[in-house]
Amino acid sequence: MSNVTPPTPLRAAHIAPGAPLHGTLKGALATLVLLLLALLFWQLLDQLQQNQKNQQQYTIDYSADLAEQISQSMALSAQIALNLLPIVEPPRNPEQQQALMRTLQRSLPDLRSFALLAPSGALISDTAEGSQDSALLEDLVKRSHAQSYYLSNDNDGTVIYLLLHQPSGGSKVYWALRLAPNYLANLTRQDVQGQRPMWAIENSLNHRVVSRDSGMPAQWSGALTPEELNRSVLVTPLSKSDWQLRGMFDRSAVLEQLLPAFIGKCLLGLAFSLIPVIVLLNMRRRQRQVNEGRRRYQDIFEGTGVALCVLDLSGLKAFCNKTQVQSREQLHAWLQANPAERKQLLKELRVTEVNQMAVRLLNVASCEQAWERLIDDCPSNATSIGYQVLEAVLTRQKQLELEIQLNDVAGNEQYLWLVMRLPEQQDDVKAVILSISDITSRKLIELSLVERESFWSDVVRTVPDHLYVQDVISQRMIFSNHHLGHTLGYNKAELQQMGEYFWEILLHPEDAEHYHDAREQQRQVGYTTQLHCQLRFRHRNNQWRRFDIREQALARDTSTVVTRIIGVAKDITDQIEASESLRDSEQRYRMLAESISDVICSTDSQLALNYISPSVNTVLGYDVDWVFKNGWQSIVANPQQLTGIYSLMEQVSRALGNPDALNTLRDEVQTQLFLFDCLRADGRKVPIELRLVLVWDEHGAFEGILGVGRDISQQRRAEKDLRMAATVFEHSTSAILITDPAGYIVQANEAFSRVSGYAVSDVLDQLPNMLTVDEQQEAHLRYVLKQLHQHSTWEGEVWLKRLNGEHYPAWVGITAVFDDEGDLASYVCFFSDISERKASEQRIHRLAYYDALTHLPNRTLFQDRLHTALQSAERQKSWVVLMFLDLDRFKPINDSLGHAAGDRMLKEMATRLLGCVAEDDTVARMGGDEFTLLLQPRVSRDMALNRAIHVAEQILASLVKPFVLEGREFFVTASIGIALSPQDGNELSQLMKNADTAMYHAKERGKNNFQFYQADMNASALERLELESDLRHALDQNEFVLYYQPQFSGDGKRLTGAEALLRWRHPRRGLVPPGDFIPVLEELGLVVDVGDWVIGEACRQLKTWHQNKVRVPKVSVNISARQFSDGQLGTRIATILKDTGLPPACLELELTESILMREVNEALQILASLKNLGLSIAVDDFGTGYSSLNYLKQFPIDVLKIDRTFVDGLPSGEQDAQIARAIIAMAHSLNLAVIAEGVETHEQLDFLREHGCDEVQGYLFGRPMPANRFEVQFSNDALFMFD
To answer: First and final CA of the chain: distance in angstroms?
Structure first.
């Protein structure tokens, strides 16, 4: 981590808001939450206690009400019974008793029996026989105290006694009614739903329970337990009975009932209390996020490479509301009306923050200075953007982009690009980002480009030659730097009279046809070559002026069709006249040269021999052609004599192209004299004296060398012996040293000084080791001396050094010279500089083993390295990875942009490939757009696989970036094949073949991928090769046959024609489907020949049917794209129709939409020529392509064929039905016939017939069949009829 403190951004000096007390606020909120939680629990606990009290009071009230209700019910039932009892006379006999019993039971169903008692309680009569409760009844009468009714029960509670007393009447007796226990249960029955308080009715005398609440678990007649007695909250006596009602309150049960709700409320309160806690935690997390966001913002704000300023525009809203300014016009009017407040308005655009990049770029020290530099529009600030910002805010622009010019610290001009994105929400205008980019370099480049464009425009217009741009289609001249008519002497009126194409009128008739033919050839080959010709135009003075014309393609459209050409026309009339005059002069001088006895020769300006006089035959016995073919050096007997002339040639060669050196050469080099011993044709040696003179023209330009050779045999014989040794020594091309026996230098020639740089005088009496390189001196010189002592001679390569210290390789030969007595007299050492030879060897090695374009290893070096790697891997048991790579879609780019652009792409591709591999891996170019990669061996197969996958993925990823060629971006992909050794082969050729097979498999898999070699790939590749080989001979061996599918009228009743379909009957494979071999035909370029055979065969077959009275009106033939666009289709069809004698109207050609739309203008011309033959044109698979209805209207077509994909869904498919109806209606509106293919059901036929389809075709009428079967099926009158 760096300890450098990051720069602090500049902020506007304003009062900062107080820091929020986040910790205090959180503590207060936490305390408040705890207090609220405690109050909530206290409230819930109080509410629980209050609910218990309410339940207890409810139990008391309920028990009191129940007691009153029971008392009233008992009084009611007693009154009912009194009303039913006889008042005057009680029943006397059992029958009356039973009758009264039944009467009472209707009102009191629980009545078991009754007894009549005397006022004293004595039993008078009883309906229950054998009853033993007389004592109890007597005691009951006493306790009733003569009340109208009284209730009680026996000891075990099984009988309820209702004692009734009639105070009025004749007899004041008591009636005792014995009732079942259910009587009391019916009196206490409650209709209240839900939870009811517990209660019990007990006998006040013995405290035994008579009846109780159904929820109580005690026995019917049992006494209350102490626990139940403790629960009692109310004991109420029931009037006129021995009973009392006890109300009971079970606190534990009530608490169990209230506790779930209490717990639920507590949990709910606790859950709600967690919300503030969560909010506090969320606030803390958000605060951390805000702090982190602020820190990231600060890092981004300061770390970005763009100058940033933060503007506060919030004050503008108040200004707009105050001044009612809502538009640009209102702002302009307000500023004109209030010029004094302009600066105050601009102060509303506050600069609140500036990063360090903006500080350096604007050369400011504070936000106020930044505001003055950018916003303030004072007279000294001509680059203020304040008014533009105001307009952008008022017009609600999303983004404001401006370019301003400022001066930097050094006073230099700098151009800044300002971008401000205005927020959509008004609340966000407090912090608007203004980014500032320094575009000074780009601006200066743009200004330079404008200046350069102006410069080249002036250059083009000042060029004396005619530069012109012509539109290919309209033949109009779009641009010309000089007007050809004015050059030819015509005035404006005369040119206007001749029209826009005046140049065709002025063109020589003989040249016009040649020029148009050349243009047509250019158009056919796509302007891939340059057009070069000479044309004659008629001058106003009726003389013909000759122009040299050069034209080439300038612009192409999206389909690579040339739309414009550029040409240069140069008036060469004067040049041709001068050349003819020069030719005449040359002829005269040639005749003079041929008439003298000396041999005259000359060279051109590039020192190439261009003339030898015929006298060479007289002097040397050689023909002129022989000398041109073999050169002068073949005649010279001693090649060393050529040193001088070679030196002169080398001196002149170095001076070529250098005007200063040529001027020096002209002043210094005069006539040169050379002597040669030449061999005559008869073998005799002849001395020749050659005088060479440099030839210059009148302007001082070098034209060549003129030589005059003379036979000096006589003179040479006299001087030969005297000069031989000196000549050999002085004029040798090699440096020569002569030393004494001790090794000291005693003599050296001029070549020595020229080669070593030492003057001869400087090396005399010196040892030769001063010329050698120190590093090799000791050991190497000892070896040389040893060889000299043993063999008296030595020859080899030695590194020497020149006077300036430069090291150079030299070929050295040393010979020991002995006198007549055999003693060592001297050493003769010759050496020559072989630097150029070594450099040539290195260049030859480079050319032999490296690609000249990409400098990658070529095929030879790559195979050598692969062979070495395979041998090493075999020894070390390692794995070698070989990758073949081929660029996809490189050829269209190379063809459209030219080879120079293609070469640049290949160079960049080589660079990208080198970036994807390690330094010890090999990347080679095999040729074209094919590359190979050899990865270093790996110890295991998995490591080799992983390395291969990694490199392949890196290569594919590197091709995602586009190639920029000629200012445009191009994307190419690659197909990569990978083979591993030894898995996929140990032999070099086998491994390369397998990798190549895998690469082609990758192309078949959609390109832009890599594939590892698999054994079955060779099988598929071999099968494909066999298929291609068989296809090349299929046409010659008559293996192609035609099948015919019938076509019927729209109602299915009349045969209207047949479609000829190509089939291949292979002798071994059988009948091959068209989809398997037609694409291969197109790739092999055989589709044109096979297509012509299909047309000819179909026409011959139809003619045969007509002769056999088979009524087939026409035959349809499919035409391929290449067959359609080769330019000779009409001619071949016309020939076929002429040979077969078939009327043109009987032949229909089917073309797809894509063929017609590929080159619309060309297609229109071809279709027009075909229509002129009388053929019918049909558009096949209509609706599946991309044709324009506008072009469809222009094309001279007759029939539209609805594709089978639309017919398959008929009639149920709504979309297919709508498309079919639309195609039929559209075709009929354009006067075109419609044929539907793929009709297989009667429903489809009915639909098409209903909507007016003209013809139908499909399996419903017949599958494609051979010609003989077709003839048998449709030769009679009973054709297929579909009613």
So the answer is: 93
- From CA 94, how far away is CA 100, in angstroms rounded? 10
pLDDT above 80 for 1242: yes
Query: What is 1049-1112 written as a DSSP string?
Result: ETTS-SEEEEEEEEEEEETTTEEE-HHHHHHHHHHHT-HHHHHHHHHHHHHHHHHHHHHTT---
According to the model, what pLDDT value does residue 853 have?
A: 87
Q: Is a pLDDT exceeding 70 seen at residue 595?
A: no
Per the DSSP assignment, residues forming a β-bridge with 480 are 468
Q: Using DSSP, how many helices (H) and how many strands (E) does the chain show? A: 44, 46
The closest of 958, 956, 951, 911 to 933, measured between CA atoms, is: 951
> Minimal CA–CA distance to 67: which of 165, 224, 202?
202
To 10 degrees, the CA torsion angle through 179, 181, 186, 188?
A: 120
CB 81 within 8 A of CB 162: yes
d(CA 1274, CA 1269): 9
* Residue 194, phi-psi category: left (phi > 0), alpha (psi -120 to 50), beta (remainder): left
For residues 201 and 223, the answer to whether their CB atoms sit within 8 Å is no
Residue 261 in this model has a pLDDT that exceeds 80: no
* Integer Cα distance of 159 and 177 in angstroms: 10
The answer to whether the beta carbons of residues 1012 and 980 sit under 8 Å apart is yes
pLDDT at 282 over 60: yes
Structure-block tokens of residue 1071: 């009948």
Buried residues in 756-775 as b, exposed as e (16+ CB within 10 A): bebeeeebeeeebeebbeee
**H or E, element range at 674:** strand 672-679
Which pLDDT belongs to residue 220?
A: 44
So what's the pLDDT on residue 236? 86
Alpha carbons 1152 and 493: distance in angstroms, whole number: 51
294-330 pLDDT, tens digit each? 777 676 767 677 888 888 888 887 788 788 788 888 8
Question: Do residues 233 and 223 touch, judged by C-beta distance below 8 A?
Answer: no
**Rounded CA separation 802/1123 (Å):** 72
Token pair 């064929």 in the structure block, residue: 1201
Residue 776 has pLDDT above 70, yes or no: no
pLDDT for 976: 93
Q: What is the dihedral of CA 572, 578, 580, 583, to 10 degrees?
A: -130
CA 511, distance to chain mean position in Å, is 52
pLDDT tens-place string over residues 84-135: 888 767 787 888 888 888 888 888 888 888 888 888 888 888 888 778 888 8
Please give the average per-residue pLDDT across 903-930, as a whole number: 91
**Is 149 strand, coil or helix?**
strand
pLDDT at 1044 over 90: yes
Question: 495 with 599: CB under 8 angstroms?
Answer: no
Quickly count: other Cβ atoms within 10 Å of residue 82's Cβ: 15
Q: What angle do CA 346, 350, 351 make, to 5 degrees?
A: 125
pTM above 0.70, yes or no: no
Q: What pLDDT is recorded for position 534?
A: 84
Q: Are 195 and 250 in contact (CB under 8 A)?
A: no
For 727-747, what is each residue's pLDDT tens digit? 767 777 788 888 888 888 888
Q: Which long-range contacts (CB under 8 A, 24 or more apart) does 1166-1173 make?
A: 1166/1124, 1166/1125, 1166/1127, 1166/1129, 1166/1130, 1167/1195, 1167/1196, 1167/1197, 1168/1196, 1169/1130, 1170/1129, 1170/1130, 1170/1133, 1171/1196, 1172/1130, 1173/1130, 1173/1133, 1173/1134, 1173/1137, 1173/1144
Rounded-to-integer distance, Cα 885 and Cα 1113, Å:
54
Cα 763 to its chain centre, rounded Å, is 73
Q: How far apart are CA 1059 and CA 1201, in angstroms?
A: 12
Burial annotation 789-824 (CB, 10 A radius, 16+ → b, else e): eeeeebeeebebbeeeeeeeebebebebeeeeeeee
User: What is the structure's pLDDT at 978?
Assistant: 92
C-alpha span between 1023 and 221 (Å, rounded): 109
